[in-house]
Amino acid sequence: MVFVTLSYLATGSFLQVIGDVQGMDKGTASRVVSKVIKSLAVHFKELIKMPENGEERTAIRQEFFNIARFPRCIGALDCTHIKIKSPGGADPENYRNRKGFFSYNVQVICDATLKIQNIVCRWPGASNDANIFANSRVRALFETGHFGDSLLVADSGYGIKRYLITPLSRPETQSQHLFNESQIRTRNPVERCFGVWKRRFPILALGIRVAKEKIEPVVVATAALHNLAIIMKDPQPAINNEIEAAVEFINNFDIVPVPVGGQDASNNRTRLLLINYFQDLL
């Protein structure tokens, strides 16, 4: 059963094709895949989780610090599009993204080793990244101080907050340029995570062809398996030109910056302190 499911997730082939290869009809293949994916999705919290204690946070902070000396970071935040077939129903256009194909816009927070720590897969492709974060449980946890003074890094598509650090749009001083360079390098793992995740499970880039209510378990299951592969030190998948082209296309979305006037200036204090920190490194 596991082999059939992995074949489906790793190739993006139709269940009919997978069934033919494994000597079973499409209905049987569908039931097998659904059962394994549901089991993985139910137990995903064992593999996909934010650092919950000081020891875990300290270790993750150090891994991020080792990249470009950016302090206190426990996660890189971004969204990525997962291709789906037209969901049908009354609102299919809500799932059509800016590139014109149907998708889910999936929010991920990853660590410096590319493991996925948090995932939100319930928003249609037309949804705005910042709005997804604003309505997420993990944002509420940061707002209430659940993670102490730890930080997230994100691109300029998000608004600056005391715990969510974005780059400066127009750096001027040497310390500002140093801050931006470090911030960009520190958030790079989430971009790499998306590439490795989709190469490992091409179904995410080639398209998930199941009913809408089954999409979230498929995505979460691949995220859990992606983390397991990293833990087990599984080599990154070899480059396949067709899959690579699909991954590049689906990942290459222009950032829509949050208007400066739409950000709360009081949230900028942490970023100013970080810029001063980089000034001291000069």
TrEMBL record:
Keyword field contains Nucleus: yes
GO molecular-function term, one example from the UniProt record: nuclease activity
Signal peptide: none
Cofactor dependency: a divalent metal cation
Species: Acanthoscelides obtectus (Bean weevil)
Family classification: Belongs to the HARBI1 family.
Keyword tRNA processing: no
Protein name: DDE Tnp4 domain-containing protein
Domain DDE Tnp4: 77-227
InterPro entries reported for this sequence: HARBI1-like, HARBI1_dom
One cellular component (GO) term of this entry: nucleus
Location relative to the cell: Nucleus
The entry's keywords: Hydrolase, Metal-binding, Nuclease, Nucleus
